[in-house]
Write a structure and sequence with these properties.
This protein is mainly α and 103 residues long. It has a domain of 56 residues. Helix content is 64%, strand content 0%. The relative contact order is 0.08.
Length: 103
């Protein structure tokens, strides 16, 4: 009988410790107030975003959220494609300027 009581007390203590640990790690369920419209916790230039700007973006760490390696992969790929497109636009604008001068 005393063994069962000891097991019960130990189980209650373990449950209390797990509950307190989970409360500390995950918070108390409070909601953050929403960001103002158009605001972002990440920083990017207001115009002329470059591939390097995208590759430098880092998101806040959270217990729950996106897998960081996937976000980093997408940002690297989007940055590379943005650089390619800007280089192509610059090349085409250069050709257009040359054709305009030739006329």
């Amino acid at each position: 009988m005393t063994t069962a009581l000891i097991y019960l007390v130990v189980m209650v203590l373990v449950a209390a410790v797990v509950f307190l640990l989970a409360s500390v790690i995950f918070g108390r369920g409070e909601e953050l107030e929403p960001l103002p419209h158009g605001a972002s916790p990440t920083r990017l230039p207001s115009s002329e975003v470059t591939g390097e700007d995208l590759r430098a973006v880092r998101f806040q760490l959270a217990v729950r959220g996106y897998k960081m390696s996937e976000v980093d992969w997408v940002m690297r790929r989007a940055g590379a494609e943005l650089d390619e497109l800007r280089a192509r636009v610059a090349e085409l604008e250069g050709r257009l300027a040359e054709q305009g001068e030739a006329r």
